[in-house]
Amino acid sequence: MSTDRLYQLIGADGARYTSPTPGTIGGYRKERRYGRLDCKVARRALEHGALYAQQRVFFADEATAIAVGYHPCAVCMPVEHAAWKAGKRGKR
Ligand SMILES: [Zn+2]
Q1: CA of 62 to the centre of ligand 1 (A)
Q2: φ, ψ (nearest 5 deg) of residue 67
């Protein structure tokens, strides 16, 4: 494995950039959802084919994912997901 590999991440402005360090948060662009890199749902979806892989994005941290309008995954981040849902309801 190469040590000088660069990672494609999404910045707080929504634009892609390359980083020498991997992201800590994985995202699914189609549903604007983010979660842990080892999320069960993401892993299962990746096994089902290339479509999900094309929509897979990465963030340096959770704050960046939130900044570009992503919401937490209900499966691997249930606490964050509940808070997001409660906050969404409160705004309306
Ligand atoms: Zn998840």
Answers
A1: 13
A2: -60, -30
Full residue range of the structural domain in which residue 62 is found? 7-91
Degrees, nearest 5: CA angle 62-28-75: 70
CA distances from 3 to 6, 20, 26, 31, 57 (A): 9, 9, 21, 32, 21
* Burial grade of 56 (CB within 10 A; 0-12, 13-18, 19 or more): middle
Ligand 1 centroid – CA 38 distance (Å): 8
In a domain, 2, yes or no: no
Predicted confidence (pLDDT) per residue in 42-53, tens digit: 888 888 878 888
* Number of domains observed in the structure of the chain: 1
Decide if pLDDT at 25 tops 70.
yes
CA 48–ligand 1 middle distance (angstroms): 16
